[in-house]
Write a structure and sequence with these properties.
Blueprint: H1 5-8, E1 14-18, E2 24-29, E3 35-39, E4 44-49, E5 75-78, E6 100-101, E7 115-123, H2 127-132, E8 137-146, E9 151-159, E10 165-176, E11 183-186, E12 192-195, E13 201-204, E14 216-220, E15 226-231, E16 236-243, E17 247-252, H3 254-258, E18 272-286, E19 291-301
Antiparallel strand pairs: 1-2, 2-3, 3-4, 5-10, 6-7, 7-8, 8-9, 9-19, 10-18, 11-15, 12-13, 12-14, 14-17, 15-16, 16-19, 17-18
Length: about 325
């Protein structure tokens, strides 16, 4: 494990463990008892707990977590595509690959001064990937846990190809909630969205907030940097911040579709909601040597404050 110097400099905050398949996982902790767990399979965050030990991310009880299958839950890295189109696997291949610890990570950003533990991962294309998608890239992922328990994911994708390439991207984020009928999403009012259940028909959000009574799969385009998920029953609000990612995808499979998914329980739609920071409506194009950065910041607040009262400045926006 000598190549893991990035991690061992923070022994008190970071630990490497192995899962039941023998694949490395990185466990991050902060001084107040919050934690996050990241698997090198897919670079996937598979757990995020607050200082009380409460799990904030949803994972299906039927999830399969054995390569090359990605686990149903947590935060999946969807690259170089989101969705199911073309020759690539659904949501791309990044979530199915084994990542490595990054030996030459980028320096800490000035706004990462509150970070107590983090890990840097790296993905490069294999020969198999080239057959599906003939582009050379370096994908660097930093996952960090702050003193206040905030979870941040920063993706840096560099084109080391001799020609431009385009991709779509999403942080496929499964939030744990009390009951889908009891939550609302604020911050997407009046926006245009693509209804993925109706052949991507372009519609406009009419409600004061998004609530749930049936299956939903929408891509809100040119969405704001911050949205909130209010869980009234748990008196918890998730604040989802993003940079470099113009779209927000809101998804819940509801009852009928849940029964068609082998790695998802029939009634589990009630206890999860996906709100994904994404770039899908307009793919990102990188010229040779160019680099793209996409950032996700997750905060869980034990309250039911109004979205308007959120102090965005405190989150660096």
């Amino acid at each position: 494990m000598g190549h893991c110097a990035t991690v061992w400099d923070q022994k008190e905050a970071t630990e490497i463990i192995k899962d039941w398949n023998g694949i490395d996982q990185v466990l991050l902790r902060n001084p107040h008892g919050a934690s996050a767990k990241i698997s090198l399979h897919g670079g996937q965050v598979i757990s995020w707990r607050n200082e009380l030990g409460e799990e904030l991310l949803f994972t299906s009880n039927k999830a399969i977590f054995k390569p090359p299958k990605s686990m149903r839950g947590g935060i999946q890295i969807c690259y170089p595509q989101f969705g199911d189109c073309g020759l690539l696997d659904q949501h791309g291949f990044a979530r199915n690959k084994i990542w490595v610890i990054d030996e030459n990570p980028p320096p800490l950003h000035s706004n990462e001064s509150t970070v107590k533990s983090f890990v840097d991962l790296l993905l490069k294309p294999s020969e198999e990937d080239f057959k599906q998608w003939p582009h050379s890239f370096e994908f660097r992922l930093r996952v960090s846990l702050a003193v206040d328990g905030d979870l941040t994911l920063v993706s840096r994708i560099r084109n080391i190809n001799g020609k431009p390439f385009s991709f779509s991207f999403a942080y496929h984020t499964y939030l744990s909630i009390s009951d889908i009928s009891e939550v609302r999403v604020e911050g997407l009012e009046t926006l245009d969205y693509l209804d993925n259940l109706s052949k991507q028909e372009l519609l406009t959000e009419q409600g004061d907030a998004i609530t749930f009574e049936s299956e939903m799969d929408r891509t809100y385009i040119r969405s704001p940097k911050v949205v909130a998920v209010l869980d009234h029953e748990r008196k918890r609000t998730y604040v989802i911040g993003k940079e470099g990612l113009p779209d927000t995808i809101v998804w819940n499979p509801w009852e009928k579709k849940s029964k068609t998914m082998s790695d998802f329980g029939d009634d589990e739609y009630k206890s999860m909601l996906c709100v994904n920071a994404a770039a899908v409506e307009r793919p990102i194009t990188l010229k040779p040597g160019e680099e793209w950065t996409g950032r996700l910041i997750l905060t869980a607040v034990k309250s039911s404050f109004c979205f308007d009262q959120l102090e965005l400045q405190s989150k660096g926006f």
